[in-house]
């Protein structure tokens, strides 16, 4: 996963890691570990996708239209 790109994207949106954690009901450290590639957290990944994070940043390829 390309955590740096996701973090940069969050900064551009004005969203903090703690905002993501609060929105999905998990601890800040889980989001941090997810972004660093040390933990799998589908709930975090799904939330980031829902708020518009490019799927390429999350390590997924775009689906063909």
From TrEMBL:
Domain HTH cro/C1-type: 5-58
Name this protein carries in UniProt: Helix-turn-helix transcriptional regulator
GO MF terms held by the record: DNA binding
InterPro entries membership: Cro/C1-type_HTH, Lambda_DNA-bd_dom_sf
Superkingdom to which the source organism belongs: Bacteria
Upper lineage: Bacteria, Pseudomonadati, Thermodesulfobacteriota, Desulfovibrionia, Desulfovibrionales
